[in-house]
């Protein structure tokens, strides 16, 4: 059953129809969609893993996949849906500084490896909030919770810039319109 506003964030058929031109009234809808269907879901999995296992050591892979998929999804709004190729551009524009110089590696060594090869071969992830570093073997590594925070910060920065950046607005509206037009269901 739709919420009182009619919008179920995870069910695109309940999203408002896209307007013909950019209107800032789309921002609260997107914020709700991103928060309820992506960010809060990831936090729920993290909380469940912590409660069940006392940490992320045994569920880290599931969380890493979710984070990479979230990054792919949210970056497609302002930078086009390009099978992940838009991720480095989003990271360089919106992420904290320590990730910006590693934007290409996030795509190739993390997103592609996790999603397509099921493992990390040339890099590492730690289960906590460790900052971005290079380990003793020369591998890029960071904590899952640190990446989670960087994604959340990146999304907040994206929404701040979306208020005034006409190019982001145009691409965001185009992506929203494309996704909404394919929605069926409820």
Q: Tally the structural domains.
A: 1
Helix percentage range: 55-70%
What shape does the CA trace take? globular
Beta-strand residue fraction: under 5%
Please tally the helical runs, counting DSSP H or I stretches of 4 or more residues: 7
Biggest sheet character: 3 strands, mixed
**Largest sheet, spatial ordering of strands:** 1-3-2
Query: Structural class, please?
Result: mainly alpha
> Would you list the SSEs in sequence order as H and E?
HHHHHEEEHH
Tally of strands? 3
CA distance, first residue to last residue: 8 Å
Task: Quote the average pLDDT.
Answer: 87
Roughly how many Å is the radius of gyration?
17 Å
Structural features, described:
With 186 residues, the chain is mainly α. It has one domain. 60% of the residues lie in helices and 5% in strands. It has helices spanning 26-53, 60-79, 87-94, 97-100, 103-117, 144-162, 166-182, and strands at residues 124-126, 133-134, 140-143. Strands 1-3-2 form a 3-stranded mixed sheet. Helix 3 (87-94) packs across helix 5. The mean pLDDT is 87.
């Amino acid at each position: 059953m739709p919420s009182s506003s009619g919008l179920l964030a995870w069910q695109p058929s309940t999203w408002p129809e896209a307007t013909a031109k950019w209107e800032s009234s789309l921002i609260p809808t997107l914020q709700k969609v991103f928060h309820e269907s992506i960010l809060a879901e990831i936090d729920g999995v993290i909380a469940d893993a912590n409660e069940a296992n006392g940490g992320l050591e045994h569920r880290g892979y599931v969380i890493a996949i979710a984070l990479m998929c979230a990054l792919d999804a949210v970056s497609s709004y302002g930078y086009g849906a390009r099978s992940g190729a838009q991720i480095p551009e989003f990271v360089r524009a919106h992420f904290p500084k320590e990730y910006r110089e590693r934007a290409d590696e996030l795509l190739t060594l993390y997103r592609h490896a996790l999603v397509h090869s099921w493992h990390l071969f040339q890099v590492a992830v730690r289960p906590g909030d460790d900052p971005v570093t290079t380990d003793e073997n020369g591998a890029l590594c960071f904590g899952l919770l640190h990446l989670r925070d960087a994604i959340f910060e990146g999304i907040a920065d994206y929404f701040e810039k979306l208020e005034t950046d006409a190019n982001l607005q145009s691409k965001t509206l185009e992506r929203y319109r494309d996704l909404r037009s394919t929605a069926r269901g409820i």
